[in-house]
Amino acid sequence: MTPAPPPARAARATLGVLALQGDFAEHVAALEACGATAIEVRTRAQLEAVDGLIIPGGESTTIARLLLAFELMEPLRARIAGGLPVWGTCAGAIMLANEVTNLDRPPIAAMDITVERNAFGRQIDSFEADLDIAGIAGAPFHAVFIRAPVITRTGAGVQVLARLTDGRIVAARQGRLLATAFHPELTDDRRVHALFVAIVEEAVEHAAAPAEGRRA
Amino acid sequence: MTTNRTPNVSSNGTTHGGTATWTVKAGLAQMLKGGVIMDVVTAEHAEVAQEAGACAVMALERVPSDIRAAGGVARMSHVKMIKEIQAAVSIPVMAKARIGHFVEAQILEAIGVDYIDESEVLTPADDVHHIDKHAFAVPFVCGCRNLGEALRRISEGAAMIRTKGEAGTGDIVEAVRHMRAVWGDIRDIQGMRDDELYVVAKEMQVPVELVREVKRLGKLPVVNFSAGGVASPADAALMMQLGAEGVFVGSGIFKSGAEFDDGTAAGRKKQLAAQRAMATAIVKAVTHFNDPQILAEVSMSIPDSMRGQSVAQMPAAELLAGRGN
To answer: What is the ipTM score, two decimals?
Structure first.
């Protein structure tokens, strides 16, 4: 991985933020602050139009139901299988996991991780903490955890990006898929958004290159 | 359970580190956006709400239309009932405290509710002071009818606002009035010179810093939902198009489908199924509030809305929105 993701180049990738429920507006604003083009995704047509997708914070029970109700679950799984970069924050990370503790609907099941919902307890246990994140250069990342999940298991192809001081895993990456238990969209630090924009742009360049042509 | 945390809260600025910070209090409201918070009075209702896709539930003893019908003094819900609802669902559980009743709020914090609604729907305990919400680790939502009320509540520590509407009526007119008033006040401030904001602050009886922040942001500094009168998917979408970031639905769900209630157990079961359909439809309408085609589709499956009562025909003494201004 590149140590410090460069600022987004002139927009050629279109990023989407799943806008069924949650703090999607903050993600759109953060992506735009990185110089990226971002749209809200509520329909299948919008899903097909994006080169990368953020699943925001929100209530995972609500998002899981609406993905099924609006028939977005299978199209999203198909796009991820086709290489779509996806980043899930909090509820979004829950949705990406293969296995979830205490969720009454099936998740998207795209990442080989197990996630425990509400792992820290109720709202009065929500907290802020500084994290060292692999691939994010510079000062520690100030992370906001709200009724947050933790990643309790990572499969062989999964890289752990960040842990709390007690060792619990709160960020992980598997290829083009990124999961964070915290909310970078709630602070002004855009380094994780810039990292995701770089992943998406690399995927777009890779797709645009001839089969045996240049590497991104 | 609560512990002896020191709330590390500046006057609504960002804070650093730890629990109970302004960022995590206001942050939970961010996670509720685009969602529906449903009033529930039993664990069964809470499960229906979660199953329909509610992003949170509000535990209370009676829905507002029943509070109106029953009269008397409306207080915080029974602790046992709130704990049953907490055990029944995994989504956030909110509960109401009376305006100014900081001991009800202490009890709600002690049992670990996720948000406290200091609510005009209950009978006020203090007709002068609101709760000092900065003193709590648990975040608060408060009602407002205009920008001044919203900013006074925020200066007291509210981390989320809802426009009041007129609870328990099923009449959307007051919700519309209050939402338009808040946005109208915000647009007025955005059109002002900086040196004119002092007088606004004086007239609204709020700190000038909050008025400046509203001008800078072009919106309230915390999340703003709509409450008080939503009784159909169309009502919910109307409030979203008028600038709500989500909706509270009280009587509108569990007072709907009255056409099925013939007094028999079978009728009651049919009514509950109809209420599930109403709840689901309102959740979908809030997601697709700008898409009339989808709004039409979700409206196909709903039962009759609550009968309701027209606010214009109610005596002033029966109106709740004027409590705690």
So the answer is: 0.91
